[in-house]
Amino acid sequence: MLSQVYRCGFQSFNQQLLPWVQSTGLSRSHRVQPSAIRHVRSWSNIPFITVPLSRAHGKSFAHRSELRHAKRIVVKLGSAVVTRGDECGLALGRLASIVEQVSVLQNQGREMMLVTSGAVAFGKQRLRHEILLSQSVRQALHSGQNQLKEMAIPVLEARACAAAGQSGLMALYEAMFTQYSICAAQILVTNLDFHDEQKRRNLNGTLHELLRMNIVPIVNTNDAVVPPAEPNSDLQGVNVISVKDNDSLAARLAVEMKTDLLIVLSDVEGLFDSPPGSDDAKLIDIFYPGDQQSVTFGTKSRVGMGGMEAKVKAALWALQGGTSVVIANGTHPKVSGHVITDIVEGKKVGTFFSEVKPAGPTVEQQGEMARSGGRALATLEPEQRAEIIHHLADLLTDQRDEILLANKKDLEEAEGRLAAPLLKRLSLSTSKLNSLAIGLRQIAASSQESVGRVLRRTRIANNLELEQVTVPIGVLLVIFESRPDCLPQVAALAIASGNGLLLKGGKEAAHSNRILHLLTQEALSIHGVKEAVQLVNTREEVEDLCRLDKLIDLIIPRGSSQLVRDIQKAAKGIPVMGHSEGICHMYVDSEASVDKITRLVRDSKCEYPAACNALETLLIHRDLLRTPLFDQIIDMLRVEQVKIHAGPKFASYLTFSPSEVKSLRTEYGDLEICIEVVDSVQEAIDHIHKYGSSHTDVIVTENEKTAEFFLQHVDSACVFWNASTRFSDGYRFGLGAEVGISTSRIHARGPVGLEGLLTTKWLLRGQDHVVSDFSEHGSLKYLHENLPIPQRNTN
Description:
Blueprint: H1 11-23, E1 40-43, E2 46-49, E3 72-77, H2 79-82, H3 92-106, E4 111-116, H4 119-142, H5 158-178, E5 184-189, H6 192-195, H7 197-212, E6 216-221, H8 246-256, E7 261-266, E8 286-287, H9 308-320, E9 324-329, H10 339-344, E10 351-353, H11 363-378, H12 382-398, H13 400-414, H14 420-426, H15 430-446, E11 454-461, E12 464-472, E13 475-480, H16 486-497, E14 500-505, H17 510-524, E15 533-535, H18 542-545, E16 554-558, H19 561-570, E17 584-588, H20 594-606, E18 615-621, H21 628-639, E19 643-646, H22 648-652, E20 672-678, H23 681-691, E21 696-700, H24 704-713, E22 718-721, E23 740-742, E24 750-752, E25 758-765, E26 785-786
Parallel strand pairs: 3-4, 3-7, 4-6, 5-6, 7-9, 8-10, 13-14, 13-16, 14-15, 17-18, 17-21, 18-20, 19-20, 21-22
Antiparallel strand pairs: 1-2, 9-10, 11-12, 11-26, 12-25, 23-24
Helix pairs in contact: 1-5, 4-5, 8-9, 12-15, 12-16, 12-17, 13-17, 15-16, 20-21
């Protein structure tokens, strides 16, 4: 077998490379620290993490989310990934990043193998240097004036370059992997090694032994002696694939070694339905066997032997052999530093090859359907959109028994898995459905003056008139947890505003969401716009949905503060409407009414403590301490079993205080509250601005001047006087419903109803008007006259 294993060699080369490796950041700080290793086993004093990764080989993974269970992984590095743009030398920064990712996965207990190109490029760099040096010496000896003539570099034969570059390439990998306390071994193969049964067994045994010893095998075709590929022997079954490039080598190796995952890195994002760079090219998220007829392949990459067609053939062959495959970009500077780990974590990167086709459309197809359906919805008459919403409201009451039966299944499956506040959110009832129906009818009534409403009219010049009109935002993505009642509310608002809608609900409400979505589509069908509202049922990760910036115009999260923060972090180029926290305050002024205060505190804190508009911090004026009013507040909270946390100033007044608060910026979401003492209304305002979340804040006082000062100076989305924080709600505001509460300062703020889902566009109507007519020597002058806005007939 033409195989060689090199280990722990090239010491002098390593000594030259070590300063560069350290300068790239591959220092000890990047290694897995002992404190982070919980389970460690050793072989030859090499520690590594062990994790429970096991899987019977024989069938590829059906979904991306399963890739995190892959134990044995082959990473194939294409020539375009490892070489520089001038094709003479290696892209050292990219290689360092790849080695770091492979090392991280290896130290998790996975078995990593590399199939790498680069020997030819490395050798070409060395030989060019030697030839230039040799020519310059000869010319210096033969030139009387020591002037070098222009030197022509001969064409270098690839096999010679490979022979000159193999040792240097392996020494580089050795130096890099050593920084992570990982040993690497080189194996050179040719096609004959796979066709000879004895050599195949030897190769297989060598690889298994290396993996057993926690060594990363680095495999490459022996380009110095490789013969041409055998004709008519390529891709004709699981046992036969001609190793004519590193794509076919990686596929053959993956199947031979019963690998779980093959990652093929190239210089394109993945597989496109037409050549990348063309106007209509779209990245294919999942590729299925048989789809290649619908794909047009472009030319191969700038370097290397195989193009995308060769990669797809090799990938399908590996998939047939039971190995999952992902083709992705390993050269993009923004993603190459985490592309391998992202793929293993199941993130939507590159093209995933799968043998299992989903029953329904992909999320990309759903996004396109929502876009076209939303545009059709926006062209309907206001009366038609209102009719759809009225019909949905009727269905909520007419189909009440079926809805509650589905909800009962969700509750039974969630029992013991969800906390009591979340179970309450998940639960539907007859009264909830009746309230939903009432809210939907309010939305239908307000939808008469939504889309197409003229906001401004201006006469620019004679016969040149400008209008600003309301239009839908486009396609909304609403992500909600444990709140099935959110679905018809948001759907009605999207219908009223003419927006397409993608809904992603929590799996704990799957049965309820399914029937509510079916009823929504039934209502939409009366005017032929069924596809405007889509429910995402695939295994799409929320982070992947947030990357669909070409399909989604606005993301609206409905759920925990952690969910909102995660979405705000994950959204790539898509605006997010919402609030990350609901830290609501109530300030009890020195002139507060004894009769009002306990009712307001009880309702704000105890009526629904899990809501984002529930009271979290109670600010008490110092003069109220040790008064009957203060005692009544404390007694009421104890009766309601509310746990009290003392703020620093409040704790200083007490001999035996409750547990001191860990942070004044806490959203409890439960029967817990922070009490703090302030000296004045101004101090209360300063506290709210420092520790609040700009959601909802309240003053309780009988002094109108103090109340107005508070209302004008507190910079929050909702500011109330003598009213519960729980009024911060779209339904209670008369908006019919809300898609959420926004604490941002752009576009919409507070409870976001129908108006917050609209934007505007400008319509200009002229008669052969050109800008040059309005120049200094032109014949026309700007008028800029405000025109009356026509009133729409809403009867």
